[in-house]
């Protein structure tokens, strides 16, 4: 098990709902940043999920796991908020916290606000786009978000696009420090197609269009599936490979069946981070048709504030749509 930080040193505590082995862009970005920081000066508080014990044993920094729910309903978000406030107060007392990093504005941000009021601990809040659309129409949510931002040392958007969303919402540009994600080009780089994967998915002599990401409505997999009916007229040897899992999987499979495209749409399911470069290098074109979520009540208004997968595919030398 990784060592706990020494109590005599000022440490930074990241509290986030997204951290490996949870699969998401936010999870990937936090991991890539925090694993590069001095391990004796940082600590992460994240949900206890399947596979976390094996993951944590491999890391040199201290990760605290708690049974915090990971759903998206309003009730679940409230429970997450309460749990995160409780744990933040516990660890603020136990350790010499110099800075609290709040990975989500609503479910973690209030923990930063309370720790500042009670202990004088500075905090930052990370945002990813669409929060003001999803929650800004609620007077209570809007007030809470703005209060969290007002008391924070800085608001950290993940892109210029997200920064402008908050600027339109009345947040001063001076309050924001934009942190645009990068990608490890040693890990993601151009290579030939894996013979094993070509044989596994029967891709000999095939042109491969690929999407990598959680199967959510905002990712737009369904639009690519519908477009395939037109693409195959000009490129009859094309296939669409969908890498990942998510709540939309069955609906997407049904759509492919209804359009009689089930032989042309390949669902790989979950793929480990270690295998991702091989999958990117399988494709000829990478596509992610982002759009605003409409049909899911709890996620209505959600959209892609940034897409790490675009960078990963580009690093592997693939044209990106």
Automatic annotation (TrEMBL):
Residues 204-321 form the Glycosyl transferase family domain. Transmembrane segments: none annotated. CDD domains: GT4_PimA-like (cd03801). The keyword Transferase applies. InterPro entries: Glyco_trans_1, Glyco_trans_4-like_N, Glycosyltransferase_grp1. SUPFAM superfamilies: UDP-Glycosyltransferase/glycogen phosphorylase (SSF53756). It comes from Candidatus Uhrbacteria bacterium GW2011_GWC2_41_11. This is Phosphatidylinositol alpha-1,6-mannosyltransferase. PANTHER family: SULFOQUINOVOSYL TRANSFERASE SQD2. The keyword Transport does not apply. Keywords: Glycosyltransferase, Transferase. GO terms for molecular function: glycosyltransferase activity. Residues 24-185 form the Glycosyltransferase subfamily 4-like N-terminal domain. It comes from the Bacteria. Gene3D superfamilies: Glycogen Phosphorylase B (3.40.50.2000).
């Amino acid at each position: 098990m990784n060592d706990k930080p020494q109590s005599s040193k000022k440490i930074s505590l990241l509290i986030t709902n997204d951290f490996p082995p949870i699969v998401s862009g936010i999870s990937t970005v936090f991991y890539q940043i925090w694993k590069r920081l001095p391990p004796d000066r940082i600590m992460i508080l994240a949900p206890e999920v399947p596979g976390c014990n094996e993951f944590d044993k491999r890391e040199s920094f201290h990760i605290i796991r708690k049974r915090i729910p990971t759903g998206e309903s309003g009730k679940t978000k409230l429970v997450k908020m309460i749990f995160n406030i409780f744990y933040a107060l516990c660890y603020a007392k136990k350790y010499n916290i110099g800075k609290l990093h709040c990975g989500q504005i609503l479910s973690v941000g209030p923990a930063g606000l309370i720790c500042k009021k009670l202990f004088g601990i500075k905090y930052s809040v990370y945002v990813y786009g669409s929060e003001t659309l999803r929650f800004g129409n609620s007077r209570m949510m809007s007030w809470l978000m703005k209060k969290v931002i007002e008391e924070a040392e800085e608001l950290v958007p993940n892109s210029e696009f997200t920064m402008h969303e908050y600027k339109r919402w009345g947040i001063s540009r001076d309050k924001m420090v934009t942190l645009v994600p990068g990608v490890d080009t040693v890990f993601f780089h151009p290579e030939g197609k894996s013979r094993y994967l070509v044989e596994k998915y029967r891709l000999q002599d095939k042109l491969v269009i690929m999407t990598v990401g959680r199967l959510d409505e905002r990712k737009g997999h369904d639009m690519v599936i519908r477009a395939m009916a037109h693409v195959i007229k000009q490129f009859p040897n094309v296939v669409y490979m969908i890498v990942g899992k998510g709540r939309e999987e069955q609906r997407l499979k049904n759509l492919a069946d209804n359009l009689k495209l089930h032989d042309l749409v390949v669902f790989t399911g979950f793929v480990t981070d270690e295998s991702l470069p091989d999958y990117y290098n399988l494709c000829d074109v990478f596509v992610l048709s982002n759009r605003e979520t409409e049909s899911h009540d709890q996620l209505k208004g959600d959209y892609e504030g940034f897409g790490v997968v675009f960078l990963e595919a580009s690093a592997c030398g693939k044209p990106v749509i």
